[in-house]
Design brief:
alpha+beta; 3 domains; 5-stranded antiparallel beta sheet
Length: 290
């Protein structure tokens, strides 16, 4: 397990407990020991059967470990190749459309370093309030909200000049029973966890069985399961809004390194019962490779 986010502490503790119950060993590669672990692996001092990478996307120190894993046939939770594909929003936009999943109206622009001068795209369907985002990356990096001009598009493209950019319509959800119909749905090894998710406060609230029936929210499970099958990811999340024209629109296509902070420790964390079930399912998956 490679990890480097300090707020993963509680999640890692629960994962360790789930492993202990099954008699599994959990080797933790963090910034302080990743080089030693990689050296030991290269020297055949020890090995492992399953690898979960929650670090190398943001820290170069983990890349040698990832390369070792790739060269030794280790099973990967959210494999590197699948993750690279799933996290490219430009690619995923077309994959989702072809699968019949609703997405915001989107114009995809070429990288600035290859095409610094482009003709103004037709923004008529997007109107005057749109979002500009790089195709790759997450955490809101490079995203421009509430944009309205071609000049803003050109400036945004310069921030990550090697990346394609998406210009997307701003989606407004309807209100259901006094709250925005905006959902974050988590998927883990076949199980789905639909939650109300306030886009302003980022607070989760699990969708109840009664709400799922009353508001036809079982569609959320269908959508995320379809995305998981298209990407071959073991664990991921997505954001979905329900709009006035009665469509479930996928907003944030794929998040593979999902935030698993406990809600009991952070207001905008994931409900504890969901995190506990996720770690139990991950441990069960790992046990099949024992």
């Amino acid at each position: 397990m490679a990890w480097n986010w300090e707020y993963d502490d509680d999640f890692i503790m629960l994962l360790q407990e789930a492993f202990d119950k099954r008699g599994l060993s959990l080797l933790q590669a963090a910034l302080h020991n990743v080089n030693d672990i990689t050296t030991a692996l290269k020297n055949n001092d020890y090995g492992f059967n399953v690898f979960w990478n929650r670090a190398s996307g943001s820290d170069a120190e983990f890349r040698d470990l990832v390369h070792w894993v790739g060269a030794h046939g280790v099973h990967c939770i959210n494999s590197h190749d699948n993750t690279i594909l799933a996290c490219d929003k430009a690619i995923m936009h077309y994959i989702l459309i072809n699968a019949g999943i609703h997405t915001p109206y989107t114009t995809i622009l070429p990288p600035y370093d290859k095409h610094p001068v482009i003709s103004p795209p037709d923004l008529t369907p997007i109107k005057t309030n749109f979002i500009i985002k790089p195709a790759y990356g997450g955490g809101g990096e490079g995203v421009v909200m509430n944009a309205s001009t071609f000049d803003e598009i050109n400036e945004a493209r310069k921030e990550y000049p090697a990346d394609r950019y998406l210009v997307q319509a701003n989606i407004s959800p309807i209100n259901i029973n006094g709250r925005p119909a905006w959902f974050r749905v988590i998927y883990c090894t076949g199980q789905t966890y639909p939650c109300w998710w306030n886009p302003e406060t980022h607070v989760y609230k699990p969708v109840t069985p009664g709400e799922e029936i009353k508001y036809n929210l079982n569609v959320l499970r269908t959508i995320i399961t379809t995305i998981a099958n298209l990407t071959n990811l073991d664990i991921m999340s997505t954001e979905i809004a329900y709009t006035a024209d009665e469509q479930f629109v996928v907003i944030d296509y794929v998040n593979d390194e999902i935030d698993l902070r406990l809600q009991s420790r952070a207001m905008d964390g994931v409900p504890d019962e969901i995190v506990r079930d996720v770690v139990d399912r991950v441990a069960a998956l790992v046990a099949t490779y024992r």
